[in-house]
Hints:
This protein is mainly α and 328 residues long. Helices cover 76% and strands 0% of the residues.
Amino acid sequence: MRKYIIKRLLLAVVIFFFVMLITYTLMRCLPTSYIEQVARQKSQLPGSKSYDEWMAQLRAMYKMDRGIIAGYFGWLVDFFSGNFGDSWNFTIPVIEEFNKTVWISFWMGLITMFFELIIAIPLGIIAATKQYTKTDYTISILALAFISLPTFFFIALLKLVFSVKLGWFDLFGLIGRNHEQLSALGKFFDKVHHLVLPIVTLVIISIGGLMRYTRTNMLEVLNADYIRTARAKGLSERKVIYHHAFRNTLIPLVTIVGGSLPGLFSGALFTETMFSIDGIGYASYQAMIVGDIPFSMFYLAFISILTLIGNLISDILYAVVDPRVRLA
């Protein structure tokens, strides 16, 4: 196991190097250039230097006067030395803006994942065990509806019903107007109250795929020979399903759970934007549309590392779920 993990970590370093090289190259080729915008603004000030002089000065300041390969290695050295630079768009250190926005997205993602697992997996199992019944058809229709549901439409519908018509929730924001007058516990529940609709949105649009996936894998396992043998031995249906069948259904589900690690920190762009929540998804979008290379590169590097770690965790969990898998 140790040898396998070391080998995978070394491979992850190589993959990370080439992934970030491609990412850096694409960032340098963006049609939007923050440096050009700043140089144009500064050159229009009274008595200022020309646009070309500002461009040369700013390119040298931000190490953009090098070629792509030289610039990438310069970024790589800074990244591994902990020097992430300042965000061009937010005008504060990258790590400060990241810490300010990532945790709200993380808690939203973690709560969403919790409800997704406890809702979608049991419903998928029920649909598989009651195949071709009204229960199966109902769950399958709901799953397809949730998969097909446009995020922006569902958010608009929730706002219309629960904010405009019923007045239970605010339309926008993470805190209420009297937030500062509340106690510490009151402030906490104020934020929880404002996160209800965003989390409901994320849960509804995400459970459909997992429900279908669980149902499909459960049906495949239930048709296996060893399940028929277990039933022939006189085991109860509950023990057949939840002790024998479900354990083997967990193997493909582990892939989804392990792969969801980056999603906890990547944010939800549409949801955060439409509810005016300053999460990491919306912040990264703002950084990319203006060509904020320091923030975008740090964010994408962070997500790449989490993806590689998630894949490694999935592979290790295979051996935990199924003893027949031997990683070594």
